[in-house]
Specification:
Length: 296
């Protein structure tokens, strides 16, 4: 691989390749940079560490996908020459250690690091990735507070931080500047979610996941303003009292999970006009009769 000095695209994804990724890129010839811009080795059986040269020797890199392998060890620090890297997907491996500083990746649009064994805190440098649209750090061992710098990502469309050990309070302060957000899931952490009842977001969500977070103040009232929201998971959120009547008027909802809470009271007489396909209310303290008309 070290001799392929004219290679621009390398796609070996979805095969049955085994062994380590070769350290190609460690022998630049005549001082000229390699033109390699696209690397896809995803969905193989590759193991071992990611060669440091992979994120250092190719200044023209735009796309790197090493997901769905068995790669281990830590993520090497990106070189300061990766001005064009837009996609970095390392999900579904066995990577460990900290997330390295990402301040040297100004063009990054998608960062997928989910389903690894990454630990420590989310680096503050993520707040410098002004082009970022997707951030997926789910299913790791990350801890500490979510950095408020995430609010500095104006193009962020998808934020997945679920299934970590993150703690602290998550409020509208993280979301006030995010006008493009569509998917938000911070479920299964040690977080407290608290939103002002008068807050009106600038975005239009399709999915909200707060499962197993401590949600203060009841079901977030900003959902009234979300005309496209389809999937809301507020299960195991320590919610009490009656289920507010306004939630049945969010007509775009297709999947609503309020299970494993402490809701009391009765269900509405009818859900005519609702588009709900899945309504999960099990493990609460509800009483009375069953809804007579689910479909109108």
């Amino acid at each position: 691989m070290a001799n392929l000095t004219a290679l621009r695209e390398l796609d070996l994804g979805n095969n049955m390749l085994r062994g380590h990724i070769p350290p190609f890129g460690d022998r630049p010839q005549l001082g000229r940079p390699y033109p390699l811009a696209y690397i896809d080795l995803s969905q193989n059986q590759l193991d071992g560490p990611i060669p440091p040269t992979l994120l250092a020797a190719f200044p023209n890199l735009q796309y790197v996908d090493l997901s769905y392998n068995q790669l281990s060890d830590s993520i090497p620090s990106p070189a300061s020459t990766l001005h064009y890297l837009a996609w970095l997907h390392l999900s579904c491996n066995a990577l460990t250690g900290k997330i390295p500083s990402l301040a040297k990746l100004p063009s990054l649009v998608q960062l997928g690091l989910s389903d690894n064994h990454l630990s420590d805190k989310i680096p503050l440098s993520i707040g410098l990735l002004s082009s970022l649209e997707l951030l997926d750090l789910s299913n790791n061992n990350l801890e500490g507070a979510i950095p408020l710098d995430i609010s500095n990502l104006p193009k962020l469309n998808s934020l997945y931080l679920y299934s970590n050990r993150l703690s602290g309070t998550f409020s509208e302060s993280y979301l006030d500047n995010l006008s493009q957000l569509v998917y938000l899931d911070i479920s299964d952490n040690l977080l407290t979610a608290k939103f002002s009842p008068t807050w009106i977001p600038r975005f239009s969500l399709e999915k909200l996941g707060l499962r197993s977070c401590n949600v203060e103040g009841g079901i977030p009232t900003f959902l009234i303003t979300q005309y496209w929201v389809q999937d809301v998971d507020l299960s195991n959120c320590s919610l009490t009292g009656n289920i507010p009547q306004w939630i049945w008027g969010v007509n775009s909802l297709q999947n609503l999970n309020l299970s494993h809470n402490h809701f009391a009271g009765v269900l509405p007489h009818s859900l005519m006009g609702s588009r709900l396909g899945i309504l999960d209310l099990h493990s609460n303290n509800l009483q009375g009769g069953i809804v007579k008309n689910l479909y109108g």
